[in-house]
Amino acid sequence: MGVPAQSPSTAAIAPCRNRSVTDHRSPPLPLIPVPSVPPGPLPFLIPSPAPLLPLAAAAPWSALGDWLTPPWMTASHWVELGLLTLFAVAHSGLAALRSRGEARIGARAYRVLFALVSLPLAVVVIVYFFKHRYDGVQLWQVQGVAGVQSFVWGLSALSFLFLYPATFNLLEIAAIAKPEIHLYETGIMRITRHPQMVGQVIWCIAHTLWIGTSFTLVTSLGLIAHHLFAVWHGDRRWFARHGDAFLAAKARTSVIPFVAIARGQQTMDWKTYPREFARPAYVGVTLFVLALWWLHPSLMRWTAAAPW
Question: Which terminal Cβ of the chain has fewer Cβ within 10 Å, N or C?
C-alpha cells in the first residue's frame, strides 16, 4: 500500500522533521549565528562582535582569537573587565589629579567629587560580580569540603583589616576634616606599606577558592592587577608629596608583608604592638565584618535581582 498523497495546500504547511520549511519558490537564507550578549549596566561600552565574525574566521590570526576568546569566556567576563577598567581609570586618574584638583576647588570639595565618581562605579562592579559570579566554567568545587567555609570566612574577615586602613581618619574620609596624604609606620603599616593591596589579594583568594568559576578568577586577576598598579602609583604620589621623608619611610617598610621585619628594617614589639590597633577605626571594621556576615544572604538575593 502506498502512502496517501497530500493535497498541495496540506503539503505546503506540513511540519518537517530534521529540516526547515521554506518557500520552494525562493532559496533559503543562510543562518548566521549571533552570540547572545546578556544586558549589562553599560552595554554601549561592549559593541557586538557579530559583524566581525566572518572576517575573523578567515583571518590568519583566527587561531590567536580563538585562544583569547575560548568558549567559556562569556560576554559577562568582558563586561566585568570593562567595568574594572573604567573604575581603575576613574579611581587612579582622580588620585593622580588630586593635587591639581585640590588647588582649584579645595581639598574637601575634591574629596566629595572623588567619592561621587568612585563609589557608584564600585557599587556597579560589586553588584555585577555577585550577579554573575557563577558564569563561565566551574574550575573546581570545594564548597562541600569540611572546614573550607570557615577558612574562607576567616580570610575574608582578615582581608578587611588590611583593606581599610584609611578609616584611621574617618573625618577626612567624610571630608569633614581636610583630607591629607599621611605617612604611617605603625599598626598595619609595620607589616606592609600597602595594606589595601594585601587585603584585596586575600579577599580575591578567599572568594575565588570558594566560588571556583572562571568569571571569579578573571575578576580577581583584574582586581589584583589594579592594586599592583596602585602600589607603584601610591609610592609615586607619596614621594611627590613628602619627598625624602617618604624615602626614609620606604626604607623602613615593605610592600610584601613581614619582609621589612624579617630584614630588621622594622620592629614589632608584641608587648606594645597590639596597642597600635586599639583605635576606634578597628572597632568599626570589626562591626562592619559582623554586619556583612549577617547580611550576606540578603546581599546575594538583592544582587541577583539586578536587571543586568
Answer: N
Chain centre distance of CA 12? 55
Residue 263 covered by a domain = yes
Count the helix, strand and coil residues of the chain and give each as a percent rounded to the nearest 5.
Answer: 65, 0, 35
Q: Is residue 284 part of a domain?
A: yes
Task: Please tell me the distance from the alpha carbon of residue 306 to that of residue 39, in angstroms, as a whole number.
Answer: 11
What's the whole-model pTM score? 0.72
Domain that includes residue 171, residue range: 137-304
On whether residue 191 sits in a domain, the answer given is yes
How many H-runs (helices) and E-runs (strands) does the chain carry?
A: 13, 0
Q: What is the tens place of the pLDDT at every residue in 160-189?
A: 888 776 555 655 555 555 666 667 777 888
Q: Which three cell numbers stand for residue 66?
A: 580563538
Q: How many domains does the chain have?
A: 1
CA distance 127 to 83: 11
Residue 259 lies in a domain: yes
